Amino acid sequence: MWRVGVDAPFDEVTALVVTAMPCHCGVVTVIAEYHDELRPLMFSIAYRMLGSVAEAEDVVQEALLRMTRAAADGVEPDNLDAWATTVTTRLAIDTLRSARVRRESYVGTWLPEPLRTTAGDDPAHRVEVDDSVSTAMLVLMETLTPHERAVFILREALGYDYADIAAVVEQSEATCRQHFSRARKHLEAGRARFRASAARRDELAAAFLAVVQGGRAEELERLLADDVVFWADGGGKAPAATHPLSGPVAVARFVAGLVRRGGPLGFTLRPTVLNGEPGLLTLGPAGELVGALTLTLDEDGRVVGIRNQINPDKLHHLGEVGDLRALMRGDGAPDEPLPPVSRPSGR
């Protein structure tokens, strides 16, 4: 694979290509001119397919390189967006196939890399928020085949008709219809049970944060649904529970216990929006990022899912990452699953 750093300017990428072969400069120039418009579309497909910001960035970069090389060889697509969608989807399918082996041997619970979806975020990572980008849905989509996942995303998120989907994934329309039907039935349980307005989402996140900072399990229980589940992903590189916790009593007591230990260590929580859901970034004493937690709400506004991403390899795109294990040992604390918690600090 011909690789360039993912942050390399696109004109640098283009230069690498066009200096290596004869150039049909018209299409190459168009790709370069529309790079900023194409990249969010391509990233939104790759991220939904892979659940990984880093892998999605690699797919987008490779797709742009291949498009530029093809254009330099004389390829002249009728529709640039459709071409970008096709190249990105096919590369994502290939990447997902190769990633399956790694994910099957993953240490503990696998969770997707959280994506910040607030105004003012990196335009290259801008994704239209819908059910297919929620953390719960991305976890469920891991159980689909690569082609089922691709067909579902193209149909559900992008609104493609089956004829166009068939051309992208190189399968028949009938097969694509079967893929979509199986995927939709399987994913129905992962659809958001409650999609709050931005104001309501922020209100609920603030209420959760206030109760967590208070450290009282009884108060926290009242915010949790009867079927609440807590997951943590440390990937073997940060202290995390290897199995989910279920039920409001168990989850509330667990989180409250962490509050009592976490305050003296200097951890703080910063509200944000992750994958369209209320989120909390966990910061260490020096402001380093050590966790990203997402809250899934039910129709009553109670928390039905808590997913805590503390694998440092999955946090670098959100900021400077700290060593959670070392921070926890610094006070003599044992390695415990998190979310790390905070004391009121005015951050």
What does this structure look like?
With 347 residues, this protein is an alpha+beta fold. The chain contains 13 helices and 6 strands. The protein has helices at 10-18, 25-33, 35-50, 53-72, 80-104, 135-141, 146-156, 162-169, 173-187, 198-214, 217-221, 248-265, 324-329, and strands at residues 224-233, 245-246, 268-274, 277-283, 289-297, 303-309. The chain is globular, with a radius of gyration of 22 Å.
Beta-strand share of residues: 5-15%
Mean pLDDT: 82
Major β-sheet annotation: 6 strands, mixed
Low-confidence stretches: 1-23, 331-347
Radius of gyration from CA coordinates: 22 Å
Q: Give the helices and strands as they follow along the chain.
A: HHHHHHHHHHHEEHEEEEH
The chain-level structural class is: alpha+beta
Q: Treating each run of at least 4 consecutive H or I residues as one helix, how many helices?
A: 13
In angstroms, what separates the terminal alpha carbons?
A: 43 Å
Shape: globular
Q: In total, how many beta strands?
A: 6
* Largest beta sheet: strand ordering: 2-1-6-5-4-3
Q: Report the helical percentage.
A: 40-55%
Task: Itemize the secondary structure elements and their pairings.
Layout (H helix, E strand, L loop, with lengths): L9 H9 L6 H9 L1 H16 L2 H20 L7 H25 L30 H7 L4 H11 L5 H8 L3 H15 L10 H17 L2 H5 L2 E10 L11 E2 L1 H18 L2 E7 L2 E7 L5 E9 L5 E7 L14 H6 L18
Parallel strand pairs: 1-6
Antiparallel strand pairs: 1-2, 3-4, 4-5, 5-6
Helix pairs in contact: 1-4, 2-4, 3-4, 3-5, 4-5, 7-8, 7-9, 8-9
